[in-house]
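G.,

No rush on this.
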Amino acid sequence: MTKSGTDTAELGYEQARDRLVEVVRELEAGGLSLEQSLALWEKGEELAKLCERHLEGARERIEAALASVEDEPGDSQ
């Protein structure tokens, strides 16, 4: 089963994504009990939500940066 050394909420995007990939591989490999499979599924859901939060934060920063560039005077054509 996956290692849970670091609290999921502390993971960066790449770490969460990599752990999610690991969870999916373990689930696809099979051979787990129902309880193990459910625990992994729940961990995967948690990791997927964390990845989505990271991506949403990145989208917001990009949109803010684009808006500030568009608002700068003197760049009109």
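When you get to it, here's the other one too:
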Amino acid sequence: MLKFVKNHLESITGVEIYPIISLTIFFTFFVVLFWWVFTAKKEYINKVSHLPLDN
């Protein structure tokens, strides 16, 4: 099964760009998320963390 998929993907021209794009999107998302976590205001974090408990 893997041999079939590998042979099929090798026949597509330009397919090697997709893993690079995926890695770039993945890396960018987590860098932005990491930046947001460390720059978020503590008041906002406390407000949002209590939302499920407020009725």
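The chain has a mean pLDDT of 87. The radius of gyration is 21 Å.

Enjoy the weekend,
O.
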